[in-house]
Amino acid sequence: MRSLSRSAPAGTTMSAGTSGRLFRRDRPPVLALADGRYRTVGYRVATAVIVAEAGMGGVWDLARIPFVTDVVTHLGYPRYFLVLLGVWKIPAAIVLAAPRLPLCKEWAYAGTFFVYTGAIASHLITGYARSEVAVLSAMTLLTVTSWALRPADRCLPGRQPLRMRS
């Protein structure tokens, strides 16, 4: 009989069969592929939505379209605040879509997170367009999802993206 002190390789489980002997059940390779595929799809979808919103939002902020100007003034911010947001949203969208630049990506993720959570707080405090809070919360969740699921080559050196435990 095998000693229980031996550790099983990663991705396997040890269980006792009907004869009392220990055997390894390896994880089916199909599930291993599916996990990576779902992770990639989740990352790409979340990132595409964030990049599209940041890019279009930046253009709209710089163009000062009436809808965006009305929201910003009702929230109590000056109109020039749109220029500040627009100038930083466009590079954030470009960096998040680019394949490298891990340090810039960290800053872009932080910036988009602060924009969405700040907008949530502004809407809740002023009471203006509270229905937007759900959309802003979804965008915040997508930002965190994109950050958590990003591939290892898009992380800072020495840091790995979050991994799911099985």
UniProtKB/TrEMBL annotation:
<dbReference type="GO" id="GO:0016020">
    <property type="term" value="C:membrane"/>
</dbReference>
<protein>
    <recommendedName>
        <fullName>DoxX</fullName>
    </recommendedName>
</protein>
<feature type="transmembrane region" description="Helical">
    <location>
        <begin position="80"/>
        <end position="98"/>
    </location>
</feature>
<keyword id="KW-0812">Transmembrane</keyword>
<feature type="region of interest" description="Disordered">
    <location>
        <begin position="1"/>
        <end position="22"/>
    </location>
</feature>
<feature type="compositionally biased region" description="Polar residues">
    <location>
        <begin position="1"/>
        <end position="18"/>
    </location>
</feature>
<feature type="transmembrane region" description="Helical">
    <location>
        <begin position="107"/>
        <end position="125"/>
    </location>
</feature>
<keyword id="KW-1133">Transmembrane helix</keyword>
<keyword id="KW-0472">Membrane</keyword>
<dbReference type="InterPro" id="IPR032808">
    <property type="entry name" value="DoxX"/>
</dbReference>
<dbReference type="Pfam" id="PF13564">
    <property type="entry name" value="DoxX_2"/>
</dbReference>
